[in-house]
Amino acid sequence: MTFAIIFLSLLITVHLLSFISVKIILFYLIMSLMTFCAFAIDKSAAKKSQWRTKERTLHLLSLLCGWPGALIAQKLLRHKTQKQPFKKWLYLVIIINILIMYTVLFTPMFVPF
Question: Hey, where are the domains in the chain?
Answer without folding.
Answer: 2-106
